[in-house]
Amino acid sequence: MTAQVIDGKAFAAGLRTRVAAGVARLKAEHGITPGLAVVLVGEDPASQVYVRNKGEQTRAAGMNSFEFKLPADASEQELLERVAALNADPAVNGILVQLPLPRHMDAAKVIDLIDPAKDVDGFHVVNAGKLAVGAEGLVPCTPLGCLMLVKDRLGGNLAGLNAVVIGRSNIVGKPMAHLLLKESCTVTIAHSKTRDLPALARSADILVAAVGIPQLVKGDWVKPGATVIDVGINRVPKLDGSGTRLVGDVDYASAAEVAGHITPVPGGVGPMTIACLLANCLTAACAQAGLPKPAL
Ligand SMILES: Nc1nc2c(c(=O)[nH]1)N[C@@H](CN(C=O)c1ccc(C(=O)N[C@@H](CCC(=O)O)C(=O)O)cc1)CN2
């Protein structure tokens, strides 16, 4: 079997178009222009690219973009003060602090200060808790994007499917598991202490790899016909030694021979992260104005 490739880039472009239409409606009917504030601390090259892309895509969707850059040696207090100011700013509907933060800053403390209503990353414990109990809240962008891709491919009804999520981070693994559980999948979260991971992975109808180990998941870990979602973004040396290339947590070539559907890296899950951020910002702006959640 050769898997069908899930084109996350194309799906994300469609989602951004739907978000832009929702933003235009919100402006026309209620005079509200959603505003997204992104805070970057330091000069990590990948983070700089992601933040620039967020600003461009926010403006392209018709929303206001506010960008704040702090030097790598800024104090944690400075960052907390910036977040507090954004919490109080009515023009700002969504706040995102780009991760990772420099080592001297405590990301949990910073996220904890973000107003949960403006927490478009969905990382605040209030939003994590809402997801865990199945209540309406802001959902982390990457797992939300993964779920959209899976539902699009499998026809929307995931009930009864076996899902294995490799990775237990608060940002991807745990929220992904909750989202799949909400869809009535039978969900297992695997991690570094899991016994016989290949056998467990082979039981999955939906296999999500979010562990940060380049090409960990091999073709013989994949159940024939399974949907494989690769969240990994790992930069590794090219085989000929000329620079680097991006690979996922899945060994794409061997997994694609067995899977039914598979996301590539790049061009799979990655582009969904920013598209879902825009969707969350529109959702947050509507909720703050007492309006229903937009259908995207
Ligand atoms: N506060 C947050 N920080 C970080 C998040 C996040 O969701 N919130 N996620 C990642 C980085 N990220 C967005 O911030 C992000 C990662 C990857 C992509 C993407 O489009 N990737 C491309 C490849 C890009 C490349 O060539 O390097 C792809 O996979 O096709 C977008 C956004 C960590 N920090």
TrEMBL record:
> Which Gene Ontology cellular-component terms appear in the entry?
cytosol
Protein's GO biological process: L-histidine biosynthetic process; methionine biosynthetic process; purine nucleotide biosynthetic process; tetrahydrofolate interconversion
Q: One Pfam family name from the record?
A: THF_DHG_CYH
Reactions catalysed, semicolon-separated, are: (6R)-5,10-methenyltetrahydrofolate + H2O = (6R)-10-formyltetrahydrofolate + H(+); (6R)-5,10-methylene-5,6,7,8-tetrahydrofolate + NADP(+) = (6R)-5,10-methenyltetrahydrofolate + NADPH
Pathway(s) annotated for this protein in UniProt: One-carbon metabolism; tetrahydrofolate interconversion
Which residues belong to any copy of the Tetrahydrofolate dehydrogenase/cyclohydrolase catalytic domain? 6-121
Domain named Tetrahydrofolate dehydrogenase/cyclohydrolase NAD(P)-binding is located at 140-288
Keywords assigned: Amino-acid biosynthesis, Histidine biosynthesis, Hydrolase, Methionine biosynthesis, Multifunctional enzyme, NADP, One-carbon metabolism, Oxidoreductase, Purine biosynthesis
Q: Which parts pass through the membrane? A: none
- InterPro entries in alphabetical order: Aminoacid_DH-like_N_sf, NAD(P)-bd_dom_sf, THF_DH/CycHdrlase, THF_DH/CycHdrlase_cat_dom, THF_DH/CycHdrlase_CS, THF_DH/CycHdrlase_NAD-bd_dom
> Which GO MF terms does the UniProt record name?
methenyltetrahydrofolate cyclohydrolase activity; methylenetetrahydrofolate dehydrogenase (NADP+) activity
SUPFAM superfamilies for this protein: Aminoacid dehydrogenase-like, N-terminal domain, NAD(P)-binding Rossmann-fold domains
Q: Where does NADP(+) bind?
A: G167, R168, S169, I233
Q: What EC number(s) has UniProt assigned to this enzyme?
A: 1.5.1.5, 3.5.4.9
Q: What does this protein do?
A: Catalyzes the oxidation of 5,10-methylenetetrahydrofolate to 5,10-methenyltetrahydrofolate and then the hydrolysis of 5,10-methenyltetrahydrofolate to 10-formyltetrahydrofolate.
NCBIfam families registered for this protein in UniProt: PRK14186.1, PRK14188.1
**Quaternary structure, from the entry:** Homodimer.
Q: Which family does it belong to?
A: Belongs to the tetrahydrofolate dehydrogenase/cyclohydrolase family.
Q: What is this protein called?
A: Bifunctional protein FolD
